[in-house]
Amino acid sequence: MIGTSNLSWGHRVVIHTSHLRSDRSDLVVGRGAQVGDEVLLDITGVLTLGEDVTISERASIYTHDHITVDPGRHWRDQGAGATVLPSAQEVGAGAVVGAGSVVTRAVPPNAIVVGNPARVIRLRGE
């Protein structure tokens, strides 16, 4: 990790071999969150990962601003190799980001998004 940051995480957090890139910013990880191998968390802005969030292998989250990945107590997942760009700002409660997807805008709650750029293909529960 590069720079000075404020790191905070809850109980039962698992962070595998990952890379944090920082320049005096904040990372908050909720209880039960899991971050897979070779994940890039760019926390040059503020990044909040909610409770029980799963970020799969080789995924990347770029902040440069402030991004919240579902800070509630809801199921959500980011697939292997997915990228969330700063313009996304938020991945909503219950949302699923498909493997290899590139998220360029906010993802609504319970949405399943795939592709480059990621598009909503349906809502969970439909």
**Shape designation:** globular
Give, in spatial order, the strands making up the sheet with the most strands: 2-5-8-11-14-16-17
Helix count from the secondary structure assignment: 0
Helicity level: under 10%
Counting DSSP E segments of at least 2 residues, the number of strands comes to: 17
Strand content: 35-45%
CATH superfamily: Hexapeptide repeat proteins
Unreliable parts: 71-75
Oligomer: single chain
| Major beta sheet summary | 7 strands, mixed
How many structural domains are formed by the residues? 1
Specify the CATH class.
Answer: Mainly Beta
- The separation of the N and C termini measures 41 Å
User: What is the chain-wise order of helices and strands?
Assistant: EEEEEEEEEEEEEEEEE
The assigned CATH architecture is 3 Solenoid
Instruction: Tell me, rounded to a whole number, the average pLDDT.
Output: 77
Q: Report Rg.
A: 13 Å
General description of the model:
The chain is an all-beta fold and 126 residues long. The chain is 0% helix and 41% strand. The protein has no helices and 17 strands. The strands form three sheets. The chain has a seven-stranded mixed beta sheet with strand order 2-5-8-11-14-16-17, with no helix packed on it. Strands 1-4-7-10-13 form a five-stranded parallel beta sheet, with no helix packed on it. A hairpin with a 4-residue loop joins strand 16 and strand 17 (119-123). The protein is globular and about 35 Å long.
